[in-house]
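User: quick one, sequence for these tokens?
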């Protein structure tokens, strides 16, 4: 939109959708930017149904646990925080008072949460976050053939279905992969430990994508967007601030 269209829109709404994602390995069958592509697409669908605006998409995120996997890019948490902090400050100056993050990458979730709390302390605004790949696990009843990590693993049935529906030309469904994580005993399972993604799998994915389909992706995306829109229309207002 032009700047005059932008000015007209921001007089009409104080809600902005902020998509963030990642550029990282996402199996041999899906594009490296799947996380940000999905976040951007969902943000657009939500914005159209709520007459809100979509902020510039942050395409690269904190993906240090995927380092070593070909095609992966990462930025430090400090860079991620500074970028979002400055964008949010400018959006506040433009008059926006409600910020809904569509977070397509787990590595960005904590930073978004920290900045949301910070900006709510400093300004009369409200923030909320949709941690996309975790969010859909709560609303997928009756859609998929698999469950657990087989369904919601990295580029598995759920992820492949969503990407193939939103971006058909970018998904190769000719030979869908699967990868079983090796089971290993842990003497101290209650202690958090850290393992690089490349040490878990050499396929750039985990779980089972073989049952994925664009139709399943459509059902999930429509259900998810309806749920997010319902949240905006019923609970996400700025009346108390």
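Assistant:
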């Amino acid at each position: 939109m032009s700047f005059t269209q932008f000015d007209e829109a921001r007089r009409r709404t104080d809600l902005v959708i902020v998509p963030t994602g990642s550029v990282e390995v996402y199996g041999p069958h899906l594009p490296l930017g799947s996380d940000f592509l999905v976040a951007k697409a969902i943000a657009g669908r939500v914005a159209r149904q709520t007459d809100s605006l979509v902020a510039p998409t942050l395409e690269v995120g904190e993906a240090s646990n995927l380092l070593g996997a070909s095609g992966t890019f990462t930025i430090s948490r400090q860079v991620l925080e500074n970028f979002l902090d400055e964008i949010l400050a400018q959006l506040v100056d433009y008059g926006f008072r409600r910020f809904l993050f569509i977070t397509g990458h787990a590595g960005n979730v904590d930073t978004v949460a920290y900045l949301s709390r910070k900006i709510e302390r400093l300004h009369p605004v409200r923030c909320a976050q949709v941690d996309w790949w975790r969010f859909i696990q709560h609303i997928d009843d009756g859609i998929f053939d698999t469950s657990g990590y087989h369904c919601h693993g990295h580029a598995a049935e759920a992820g492949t279905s969503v990407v193939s529906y939103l971006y058909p030309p970018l998904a190769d469904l000719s030979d869908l992969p699967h990868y079983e994580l090796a089971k290993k005993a842990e003497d101290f399972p209650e202690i958090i430990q850290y393992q690089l993604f490349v040490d878990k799998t050499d396929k750039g994915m985990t779980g089972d994508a073989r049952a994925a389909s664009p139709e399943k992706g459509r059902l999930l995306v429509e259900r998810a967007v309806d749920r997010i829109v319902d949240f905006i229309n019923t609970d996400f207002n700025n009346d108390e601030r």
